[in-house]
Amino acid sequence: MKKILFSIVLLSSVYLSAQTVIVEEKYEKNNEPINFQYLPISKKVVIYKGESISLSEFSLTTSGVSFDADGKKDILFENEKFVEPTFSVTEKTIKGYDGIKFSGKHDYKFYQNKTYNIIGHKMLEDINFSYFGFYDRDNFYNHSGRSDAGWHFEASFNDTYDFAFTDQKESDDIDFTKDDIFLEVIDIKNNSKKRVQIAKPDLALLTGDGFAKDQYRTTFKTRLNGNENFDLITKSVSADFHTTTIYKTTYNFEGKIVKELPLALKLDNKFFIVSDNKGGYKYESGDGRLERFF
């Protein structure tokens, strides 16, 4: 048995002061720290423990504990079998792959209030969760794509549902300007799924002669607002590159528009670049070719 000391550093965003908490834990072989996650609402750090899966980049998570700023420990789950567990945006539900049958196509396991529900992989095929983004290692809300293989699930689920998108052909490859868009609503507790068509925003606000031309097709991103609703976010850039407008359209889970909010930004002496709503910057390869957008 090996005793390990580890420190957790919490940074206050208001006062920009750091506080270090030293926690003493005992770990055994096949029951060691394999990952962590910061919960911004409760301001806790979660330590996942388990063991590596042989001949795989994944780890089997068997327990999870959280620590607050004072080092107070709370046992979240024990003697479970998760792969890649992560919390919902509400911080009340955990989602992961079912570690009992982790081979081939994977079932999903949702853990809430000391009980779990299994969603079979067939219900999850050919639907797109990625529009909801995910939380990266630094707990930044990230829409730049899952650059780290085997990292957390998308931020697409709350305490009742998991969400994804498809088009009218039930395909996960969606053309925003041409396709009808359907919200896939997966009921976690009832192990069921329904799909509802959402009302698309006005495309005349995004494309046409008055807007910048881009080699990428127009798309959208979404963000889940807890158990209440979700936002669909689009962006336009004017043809002269001096004005950009971000549109936030809020939907209920029946696909109906609740409200719309535009935010226009204007630069007189500088220019906006064309973006695919993933944030960050664009870069060029060594030969000057445009490589990709982040």
Protein topology:
Elements: E1 2-11, E2 18-27, E3 32-39, E4 44-52, E5 59-67, E6 73-77, E7 82-87, E8 94-98, E9 108-112, E10 115-119, E11 134-135, E12 141-142, E13 161-167, E14 181-187, E15 192-197, E16 221-225, E17 229-237, E18 243-251, E19 257-266, E20 282-284, E21 290-293
Antiparallel strand pairs: 1-2, 3-4, 4-5, 5-6, 7-8, 8-9, 9-10, 11-12, 13-14, 14-15, 16-17, 17-18, 18-19, 20-21
Shape: globular
Report the biggest beta sheet as strand number plus sense, adding barrel if it closes. 4 strands, antiparallel
The portion of residues forming beta strands comes to: over 45%
Low-confidence region ranges: 1-17, 146-150, 276-294
Q: pLDDT average, as an integer?
A: 81
Order of helices and strands: EEEEEEEEEEEEEEEEEEEEE
How many beta-strand runs? 21
Helical stretch count? Answer: 0
Task: Give the N-terminus to C-terminus distance in angstroms.
Answer: 45 Å
Strand order of the largest sheet: 3-4-5-6
Classify the helix fraction into a percent range: under 10%
Structural account:
- This protein is mainly beta.
- Helix content is 0%, strand content 46%.
- The chain contains no helices and 21 strands.
- The strands form seven sheets. The chain has a four-stranded antiparallel sheet with strand order 3-4-5-6, with no helix packed on it. The protein has a four-stranded antiparallel sheet with strand order 7-8-9-10, with no helix packed on it.
- It is globular and about 65 Å long.
- The N and C termini lie far apart (45 Å).
